[in-house]
Design goal:
215 residues; alpha/beta; Rossmann fold; 2 domains; 7-stranded mixed beta sheet; two-stranded antiparallel ribbon; 6 helices; phosphoribosylglycinamide formyltransferase activity; Phosphoribosylglycinamide formyltransferase
């Protein structure tokens, strides 16, 4: 069984999607702890409902950002966490945490990286006028949304889309591909060569490609 640690700042809908897959028996993992940097994060309520340990760590209590992430790394290691999941964690992860979990931190981003990194990827896509957008699960490195890509899923973009309408469609696929990426890791099927993630025995899945029915 794979031990997970989850970092979140807000509502935690991807956190919930992972919980659901675990409880349905489709993901052989256990969430050892949820760590939040926001005491009002709704993810805390989700943790309470499912009897998952949670911890609020206030970044303002630390003399530096590095010290904050050293504390997070210590808490994760003390619970034997193997894979760290960023589920709407609104901070750029620092080197100390990355070095503690090399190629063992996953993030999901609401755009087809390397296009539209950073905040509001959905709005960037709508404003740019593209016709295909989606989401990306990637390993975390020291850049902003620059780590090796694990899985991507695509959705069509209508000329009439708003940030909210596109976000809603992308979110449906986020809830599919994030647990899928964790499952592949748990099964020992991921390896990183340079910046390319190799997936042993993996086949493309139609639901991760453009699906007009999600419009």
């Amino acid at each position: 069984m794979l031990n997970l640690g989850v970092l979140a700042s807000g509502r935690g809908s991807n956190f919930q999607a992972i919980i659901d897959e675990i409880e349905a028996g489709r993901l052989d993992a256990e969430i050892k702890i949820l760590i939040v940097d926001n005491p009002n994060a709704y993810a805390i309520e989700r943790a309470k409902r499912h009897s998952i340990e949670y911890l609020y760590i206030n970044p303002k209590e630390f003399p530096s950002k590095d010290d904050f992430f050293i504390k997070i790394a210590d808490e994760l290691k003390s619970r034997d966490v193997e894979l760290v999941i960023l589920a709407g964690f609104m901070r750029i992860v620092r080197k100390f945490l990355i070095d503690a979990f090399p190629n063992r931190i996953m993030n999901i981003h609401p755009a087809l990286l390397p296009s539209f990194p950073g905040l509001h990827g959905q709005k960037q896509a709508v404003d740019y006028g593209i016709r295909i957008s989606g989401c990306t699960v990637h390993f975390v490195d020291e850049g902003m949304d620059t780590g090796p890509v694990i899985i991507q899923a695509a959705v069509p973009v209508s000329p009439d889309d708003t940030e909210d309408s596109l976000s809603a469609r992308i979110l449906k696929l986020e809830h599919k591909i994030f647990p899928e990426a964790i499952r592949l890791y748990a099964e020992g099927r991921l390896s990183v060569e340079g910046r390319v993630v190799k997936i042993k025995g993996y086949e493309l899945k139609d639901e991760f490609i453009v699906n007009p029915s999600l419009r």
